[in-house]
Amino acid sequence: MIRLAALTLVLASIAGCGLTETVGSAATDAAAKTQELKQAQATEARARNELDAAARASAEQRQAAEKDAQ
Description:
Layout: H1 2-17, H2 19-69
């Protein structure tokens, strides 16, 4: 019974000092950073695909120009 009372007292003091709020805020920040990371990875993948497509188009144009030059 004394342990339960001590635990209750500790939990009440933690809640009163704002630690619970801080932990909640940290979790929210972590979720936001995770979302930002996912968006950045999607942007990187899109940019890589666009660069690959541009490189392919350039190679095709070069090959066509070389073929026409012969």
